[in-house]
From TrEMBL:
The keyword Magnesium applies. GO terms for molecular function: isocitrate lyase activity; metal ion binding; methylisocitrate lyase activity. It catalyses: (2S,3R)-3-hydroxybutane-1,2,3-tricarboxylate = pyruvate + succinate. This is Isocitrate lyase. Keywords: Lyase, Magnesium, Metal-binding. Pfam families: ICL. One of its GO terms (biological process) is carboxylic acid metabolic process. It comes from Bionectria ochroleuca.
Length: 519
């Protein structure tokens, strides 16, 4: 049955042409760094039958050029997070890119705000990107129309900003299974994003107040997620960028032991105690707080990785032999146990089931080596890499980027000056803090973001004005806002007719009335 004429030859020819076009796209120097585990045929079979193009692709190319230029110059783009289009209309005067942070969206763009547990609806951030992108188009259009009202000579004196700063957005962990990740990627592209970042965190498992912040997923799941996004970008035929963020360096748990590539870092008990969950349940029944019961158990359990457990029991010589065979990428616990049995005289007790959390997570040893491994493994799927670090440990920053650059010398990196960074406490001098961004740029960290400026940053401004308004009423508004914004250089606001879009509205009336709108 068919409602169109069934020309099988034409259908086959169109499919083969599509396959050839995709293969050509993939050979483009712009995509040379990418490797896919799937074929052009598979992508062609997943495409629509009508051509569709997305501004996201254009913005992706624009971002690529901006960042590549920084890489070549050893400089970087410094931006910050916002969800507010008016803020974007100002930041483009100094920033080349805009960041839409999940944490900010979760706090101010949803019906039920809250801490950054990435527990907001999966389409929250794409919707904010769409809002911002459309606002950028508005500012771009009204500026262009305003300029075109003037002669070429007059335009030399008018301001001109690039409002279409590429948007980088937080894709978090993809929000569930692969089909959700695919839909998320699709929505981001449709919204006009230039790049999204996707991480290796588990959904729904952040707990900050009790110090059990983050949980990662196995390497295999991380790979699948990123592949799903790359596949969706390919299906849509866009040059939208994908940033592979990795949180392994500062996470406390992993959801599963299924992937041997993670076994080196999974922590077990080396004392044969009752399981942690049972100890906590009993302790709490006796009136102990959760954290106290947990920490008591942890202090008795001899928590360490299997390799460390072997080191405790082996002689120096035995351990050296063991390490040479058993400590390498991807060696499973089963294999490690076999090697230990063969080489170490003493029995090594190690049980990674005992410390499992109530939710079933396994304990994880955060460290730089694992982010290096994950970053290198997934690099061919993405355009950039971000090792999320809570603490400004310069040694770790240098180690991570140097190691990845040994394999991918042209890799571009991102860095987030996330939440609680305390440079003084970490021993940084004022000079080091000042040159921090420039020093990182030399490591290839071309995109640097202060993601959550909009919380404390806007709060400071709002609190200051609210006090003045309460104290001085309209006199306060006139002095604090109205007068300074009208004095040259005039601040953007409703009083500036071009900014507010008044000339644009007039132009609509004029064109409809058949009048001329250019000189
Ligand atoms: C970048 C981030 O994902 C965000 O949502 O803005 C957060 C920010 C933060 O915790 O300060 C993150 O780094 O996880």
């Amino acid at each position: 049955m068919s409602n169109v004429s069934l020309d099988l030859d034409a259908e086959e020819a169109a499919f083969q042409a599509q396959v050839a076009a995709i293969e050509k796209e993939w050979q483009n120097p712009r995509q040379a760094h990418l490797q896919r585990p799937y074929s052009a045929e598979s992508i062609a079979a997943l495409r629509n039958t009508i051509p569709i193009t997305y501004p996201s692709s254009f913005q992706g190319d624009k971002l690529w050029n901006i960042l590549k230029t920084h890489l070549a110059n050893g400089t970087c783009e410094k931006t910050f997070g916002t969800t507010e289009p008016t803020v974007v209309s100002q930041m483009v005067k100094h920033q080349q890119t805009v960041y839409v942070s999940g944490a900010l969206c979760g706090l101010s763009e949803v019906q039920h705000p809250g801490c950054d547990h990435a527990d907001y609806p999966w389409d929250t951030v794409p919707k904010v990107v769409e809002k911002i992108f459309k606002a950028q188009l508005f500012h771009d259009q009204r500026q262009h129309q305003f300029r075109m009202r003037h002669s070429k000579e007059e335009r030399a004196k008018l301001e001109k900003y690039d409002f279409m700063a590429p948007i980088i957005a937080d894709g978090d962990m993809g929000f569930g299974g692969l089909t959700t990740t695919v839909k998320l990627a699709k929505l981001f592209v449709e919204a006009g994003v230039a790049m999204i970042h996707l991480d290796d965190l588990a959904i729904g498992l952040k707990k900050f107040t009790v110090g059990e912040g983050r949980t990662v997923v196995p390497t295999s799941e991380y790979l699948s997620r990123l592949t799903a996004v790359r596949m969706q970008f390919d299906v849509m035929g866009t040059n939208t960028l994908l940033m592979c963020r990795c949180d392994t360096d500062r996470s406390q748990f992993i959801t599963s032991t299924i992937d041997p590539r993670d076994h080196e870092y999974i922590i077990g008990a080396t004392k044969d105690l009752d399981p942690l969950v049972e100890y906590i349940a009993q302790g709490m029944a006796e009136g102990k707080p959760y954290v106290q019961a947990r920490d008591e158990w942890k202090s008795q359990a001899g928590l360490m990785t299997f390799d460390q457990a072997v080191k405790e029991k082996a002689t120096e010589e035995e351990y050296q032999q063991y390490a040479s065979k058993a400590i390498a990428y991807g060696i499973s616990l089963k294999e490690k146990r076999r090697i230990a049995k063969e080489l170490v005289k003493q029995d090594v007790f190690f049980d990674w089931e005992l410390p499992r959390s109530k939710e079933g997570q396994y304990m994880w040893k955060p460290n730089v080596k694992t982010i290096v491994e994950r970053a290198i493994l997934v690099a061919p799927l993405g355009d950039m890499t971000w090792a999320r670090m809570d603490a400004p440990v310069w040694k770790d920053i240098v180690e991570f980027h140097t190691e990845v650059r040994k394999v991918y010398p042209d890799r571009m990196f991102a860095f987030g000056f996330t939440g609680m960074y305390n440079y003084e406490a970490a021993g940084f001098t004022q000079e080091q803090i000042k040159s921090f961004s420039d020093d990182m740029a030399k490591l290839g960290i071309v995109w640097q973001v202060q993601p959550i400026w909009s919380v404390a940053g806007l709060n400071i401004t709002a609190e200051k004005f609210s006090k003045e308004w309460q104290r001085d009423g309209i006199a306060g508004y006139i002095e604090a806002i109205s007068k300074p914004s009208r004095a040259p250089p005039i601040v953007d606001g409703f009083h500036k007719l071009s900014y507010a879009g008044s000339y644009l509205a007039d132009a609509f009336f004029a064109v409809v009335a058949g009048e001329k709108i250019v000189p």
